[in-house]
Amino acid sequence: MKDMDAEGYTTEDGRKIGGVLMEMRNITLRFGGVVAIEDISFDIREGEIRAIIGPNGAGKSSMLNVISGFYNPQEGEVWYKGAKRPQMKPYQVAQQGIARTFQNIALFEGMSVLDNVMTGRIRQMSAGLFAQALWKGRAEAEETANRAVVEKVIDFLEIQHIRKTPVGRLPYGLKKRVELARALAAEPSILLLDEPMAGMNVEEKEDMSRFILDVNDEFGTTIALIEHDMGVVMDLSDRVVVMDYGKKIGDGSPDEVRKNQAVIDAYLGVAHD
Amino acid sequence: MEDAGIREERNLAQPSPAADGARSIPALLQRNASRFAGRHAYREKEYGIWQTWTWAEAAGEIEALALGLINLGVNEGDFIAIIGRNRPHFYWSMVAAQSVGAIPVPLYQDAAAEEMAYVMDHCGARFAIVEDQEQVDKLIEVQDRLHQLEHIIYVDPRGLRKYDHHKLHRFIDIQEQGRAAHYEFIEDLKARRDKLDYDSICVMLYTSGTTGKPKGVVLSNRNIIEASKSSAGFDNLTRDEEVLAYLPMAWVGDFIFSIGQAYWCGFCVNCPESADTMQTDLREIGPTYYFAPPRVFEGQLTNVMIRMEDASRFKKRMFDHFMAVARRVGPDILDGKQVGGMDRVRYALGNLFVFGPLKDTLGLGRVRVGYTAGEAIGPEIFDFYRSLGINLKQLYGQTEASVFITLQPDGEVRSDTVGVPAPGVEVRIGENGEVYYRGAGTFEYYYKNEESTKKTKDADGWVATGDAGFFEEGSGHLRIIDRAKDVGKMSDGKLFAPKYVENKLKFFPNILEAVVFGNGRKQCTAFVNIDLTAVGNWAERNNIGYASYQELAGHPQVLEMIRGHVEDVNRSLASDPMLSHCQVHRFIVLHKELDADDGEMTRTRKVRRGVISEKFEDLLVALYDGSEEVFTTTEVTYEDGRKGSISATLKIVKVEVAVEQAAKVAAE
Known about the structure:
Helix content of chain A: 25-40%
Structural class of chain B: alpha/beta
Number of helices of chain B: 23
Distance between the termini of chain B: 63 Å
Number of domains of chain A: 2
Shape of chain B: globular
Oligomer: heterodimer
Shape of chain A: globular
Largest sheet of chain B: 5 strands, parallel
Helix content of chain B: 40-55%
Structural class of chain A: alpha/beta
Strand content of chain A: 15-25%
Strand content of chain B: 15-25%
CATH class of the largest domain in chain A: Alpha Beta
Strand order of the largest sheet of chain B: 4-3-5-6-7
Largest interface: A-B, 20 and 13 residues
Number of strands of chain B: 28
């Protein structure tokens, strides 16, 4: 394991990683008789890119859904910013500054890219229905301020040329980027990415990797991502949790994980007992 | 209207000679900053909004940068490479460099690291002002060959945080340092600025060159300002023009339009948000003065036609009906000629329903003066825009002339000539048919290349263009036939003019590029590149599936279609006794697009014949040895500089040659 203490550690490329931002303690999640996650613990530190990997059906997405509050685990605790998190609805989790993207894109197809990304700012809008409808006073000021944030994100992800295009008309790779934009517009403390590279070609994967690294570098956003493409994850992340059949079989830097026998077995398909 | 710029300049010069500062671009900036202080000088769309700088604000930005450059150690006579897309920052960089006595050298931002290394090593640039991580990476890649490069300044910090910042600086930091050191360096800056005169170097531009290594063309303040002054007068350009700056900054045209003429007249330069949003931004700005190479106009027309194919039947019929009216009377109305009353009414209706909205969509609704140059433009394309009422004209020019050699005056516009000599430029035709010129815009010399300078520019200042042409009797307009060195002879001694034939081929929307061979041979043959947009759309409408450019290019129906086009060209050539023997007998549709990254074209997209015939030698052999297909492997360069290769089996298509009297005799 990396040399780590409460203050965090320094990565190989010189980035300073802070203290623990989120901690999963002995999480177990069951669906009836099926155990999706079994007694898993790990932490996510401030400013790091943390990956959760594993073969299909390992429980990665379930884990992400626990973090985002979509599932409530039967056992275990989620600690966030130094406090134990009570049972929460997903929107409450979002209000705490956790934003996410989905494995199979969940955008408003009929709305423009700009409007889709604006929905990421809903948390920051408080003007009443009436004011919004008349677009006067606070509503106007609010929208201007939110639009400024959204435009920064659009510029950052280089999607200016499709600003006014309905999302339904976009190719898959761009939709993924729009979804990332919406999550970023929320200015989250933790960004959860569910298979950001799924279904992409090599070039699109490279683009997406660059955006993920740039987001982390530019805004200092903590990122937790799920991937099953090993190569991409190993290049991107600072620390990796490996899951297989609902259990944690490895945790550490990409190099450590790559040498871990259990991980090699899981990926090469050794018979289980 | 008389040119306000010129008149005011005279008035200004009268009271005191010292006030006449217009001997350099920085002096023009000073003039504009006081005279047009509150008027807009630059706009750039960023974060979805057009951000604006007035002349006074622009002068402030440029001064801060200039002070920062002195602070960084820029000396007079240093070369500063400028690499980025059209953004105000880079225009400021050029003028700031001039202000401190340095020489700006704009480079093509899409050039590979290798090409940049050559140019930057050749001029020994000590500094580079670049856009972003991509450009910084390229310079770092070749840094061991750039011993003179000391500092890199970047505009966009993204992704650069972790880089070693010993030699790397952020643009706004340099400006900040400049502002902080204002009192320390302002006197130095003023002294340097005052030293600039008509003979000092304004800019150095590297010509892409269809053969050999790029040459650094040195242009003085005299060249740039005189060329801008006379051309602005020719078209009555005023401070109220709006231009969109989207053409490569390394190209002389952009320098003249976005700096020379903009500073002389005091008009506003608008920079698009990104290369992809150019069309939207064009429409939002609605330029009054617009320049584009033929390929842009071709692309726009192709798009219009594709969209009309998909339009409802009613719309399509309306479009066809009014376009027929426009073709008949539009150009005459534009030229102010006599047109019948009924036709005027029809045209006005067309304008209301079709031309007006179409021009608006294209972003050309307000264009008062439009130019195309660089290549021949297809007559149909040219006429299409003119019939819509857009005053599109042609000019002929080159870097060595500070653009302008000939221009078409309003009312004397034709698709097959390039106009009359520009004001202050003399043009003559040499004995071999080559066009020569001299004038105030004529370049000083090629940097560190005396031999080429001597070969191109003689003691009396006449410059050889390398193009063959002649003045048309009656109209006095210049007509360009071909590159003088491309004009050759067939084996039977007849004139071989490849570009003439290639242009005829390229006028078909489906053909993007063509290269015709035949010098010293019995017959002409050709390589053809299909236009993926046009052919792709055609394929979609005809239910032809394809997975790649290569597959589409090799599709039998596509080959058949291209064969039809080539036969059309042959028929048209057959009617010209001078060129009927240049008909294309066999052709190959290439499996890859000719690309500047592979060295097959210049950055301004002119074909490099030598490179192409060497690289595709096997195909060329197959064109002449009678074989029906050929297997080939070609090396390609990806955008990031990596190399790969593609292979394909290409069919060689035989074309019917139209019979003409002269050809028949020759065949027997």
